[in-house]
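Budget justification aside, the reviewers requested a transparent look at the raw inputs and outputs of the sequence design task funded under Objective 1. We therefore reproduce one unedited record. The lines immediately below are the structure tokens for a 143-residue chain.
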């Protein structure tokens, strides 16, 4: 299930002129601003101040924060985008933040009891599996 570009770009803080698939890719390749980590972390897990360190390690984030023009690496930006994509899909399927969070942070049978948030943060393939489950839920084919 592909998330719509606008919600993903919005949560990442990408300008309206760059809100295309290629624009987002270019922004990630140029380096997302460090603030993107804080934006997605506060959207997905607002009560957990340490959640952002699951996206980018604490020492790395602290080092980058000291430089106002610091950017994320392509790998880090990809992880942030992946989380934003799954978050946007979960919001679309569940219709609100609380329900989307409940889905992401609760173990799921189709993930062998793993939490969707952990699968999303681990690998792109894990995120795609979570997106597949969300697509099944949206279109009524989930067991």
């Amino acid at each position: 299930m592909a998330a719509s570009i606008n919600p993903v770009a919005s949560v990442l803080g990408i300008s309206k002129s760059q809100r295309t698939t290629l624009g987002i890719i270019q922004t990630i390749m140029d380096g997302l601003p460090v603030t993107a980590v804080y934006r997605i972390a506060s959207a997905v897990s607002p009560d957990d101040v340490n959640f952002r360190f699951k996206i980018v390690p604490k020492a790395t984030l602290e080092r980058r924060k000291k430089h106002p023009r610091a950017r994320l690496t392509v790998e880090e930006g990809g992880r942030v985008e992946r989380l934003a994509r799954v978050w946007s899909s979960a919001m679309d399927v569940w219709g609100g933040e609380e329900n989307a969070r409940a889905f992401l942070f609760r173990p799921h049978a189709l993930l062998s009891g793993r939490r969707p948030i952990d699968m999303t943060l681990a690998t792109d393939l894990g995120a795609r599996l979570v997106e597949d489950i969300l697509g099944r839920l949206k279109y009524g084919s989930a067991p």
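The chain has one domain: 5-139. The radius of gyration is 15 Å. Computational costs for records of this kind are itemized in the attached budget.
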